[in-house]
Amino acid sequence: MSSPTTPRTALVTGASSGIGAAVAAALVERGHRVYGTSRSPEGISDPIPGVEYLALDLTDAASVEACATAAGEVDILVNNAGESQNGPIEELPMDAIERVFRLNVFGAVRLTQLVLPGMRARGYGRVVMVGSMLASFPLAYRSSYVATKAAIKGFADAARREVSPFGVGVTTVEPGSINTGISERRTQYVGEGSPFEEEYRTMVNALNANEARGISAEAVAATVLRAIEARSPRPLYAVGSNAPLVFALRRLLPRSVMLRIVARKHGLR
């Protein structure tokens, strides 16, 4: 990793635990002023020294704008907060799908819109979308989550060229399986007696086992810092789940074959 950069002001969403907390702590160590967000900052049991916490509900447009105003001139934005959601597509309630898109996509995009003008005016900025390798390797029964992560990567990929002439780098970090306790926080929608229930449970059990063996939040944070500190950030950084190998296979094998490989890794035949 490169030497510490000029101290900047960073805003990290979802900084009360997991990847967000690890990124916030790493940025503080690098000498940056760090704002971390939480729905309820007053309820954070183990606050990170040096992090200033702001309230943020990404599903509430007024909350997003208030957070951006409170943070002021942000040089580094890490869009990390999100919801992990499972369920057969037939059984996902539309209000749940709309909520996960507001939280994982629309809130992140709006926050990005609010900080970009200042970055552009100052001639420097870094925006990191924390996605998921599932956006590159979709998995059955995770359609809504996969779609949100693919959407934020699409926004990042398209926006890169718009803002790069102004010194602003936009990138996506895609973690694979992460051991952060997310298995306990995932929202799930599958009806009792569902025709998909048996296969769904097989997938969930494999998913949870993969996550229990997954990389740490700190490993993902190190990759986020690489993206932030790169002179010219790449469009995509992937970490965990044998990322170099599986992305190489993705370039070599037909997409249908890769989808079967991902399914089998999760117990689906």
TrEMBL record:
PROSITE patterns: ADH_SHORT. It holds the Pfam family adh_short. The keyword Glycoprotein does not apply. Belongs to the short-chain dehydrogenases/reductases (SDR) family. This is SDR family oxidoreductase. Residues 8-176 form the Ketoreductase domain. Keywords: Oxidoreductase. Its EC number is 1.1.-.-. One of its GO terms (molecular function) is oxidoreductase activity.
